[in-house]
What does this fold into?
Amino acid sequence: MSYSDIILCIFGLFCTSYISRILPLAILGRRPLPTALALWLKYVPTSVFGALIFVSIFGDAGSGFRFSVTNIEMLAALCVIPVAAKTHSLAYSIIVGLTAYWLLQNYMI
Amino acid sequence: MGQYFNKQVFKAAWPICFGYVPLGVACGILGEKVGMDPFLMALMSVFLFAGSGQFIALAMIGANTGIIPIIITVGIVNLRHLLYGLILNQYISKENILYRAIYAQEIVDETFAVNSVEFQKDNSTWTPKQAFGLNFVSHMGWVLATVAGVILGSAVYIDTGLVSYALIAMFIGLWSFHFKTFKLVAIGVLGGILALVLSLWLDNMLNVVVATIVAAVVGAVWDNGDGVGEK
It folds into this structure.
């Protein structure tokens, strides 16, 4: 792809991505949310986090799952979850997660 | 400026930037391999600003894919930002148009995650200005990291498995703020299982979008009078 093609591509990427980003802000504006939508939105963040986390840990690029007792991402997550639930601290979550991952990767599995 | 950038903002932003450094450098290294220079990389990180979206776009550029398929694919990957805007809107709807136009551009998984949790905390003092500051710091962190990746090229070795775990751990930390009721936890697990099952048929993060929509509908129906409650 030529230099100018890449610039054109980036502009196109900006346009399509920006639509998803601005649309809800533009449409909802200052209107209050209908109750049903508010109730649904209450469960969106937990669902997104669950989805992103499970896919990162067990996903295998669409070609199956990595369900295994030696799945390092899973084992490290099992260390992070109790710490996160107890402290609600992102710093502790990251420190525990990286330490556990590193230890598992280098010394156990 | 102190309203946009203060201690509370940096305290909330560092885990994002911490995760972005290795991820952004890795993204820049990939960019360098497919022919990006620092200027193009900066342009892409400013105007696209999407971790997985940029990795996919760069891989497709490297594979000589046409512009239209790249744009459509990344557009689908970034559809989930629509969900984030629906939630964030209620906290920033009173800000002016310029604020909201820029805010929209900086909605990504990480900034949404941290801002929504900060806004929803009990007795939250998180302001739209602080959220804006956090977005800006994160965005700049991403731009700098990706440009650094292009410049460093393959001269550095990064254990991406290890470093990208920082963001997974951060997401677990953010998820924990929703461990308030059994239903909230169960719906999160449901979203996770659905996303995994759907990944067999849907790719490009579309599995995450569909799983979220369905799991949250189940949550709303099951909610049964618990109410919108915490804000």
Residues 6 and 12 of chain A are 10 Å apart (CA to CA). The longest helix of chain A spans residues 3-28. Chain A has two domains: 1-31, 33-108. DSSP finds five helices and no strands in chain A.
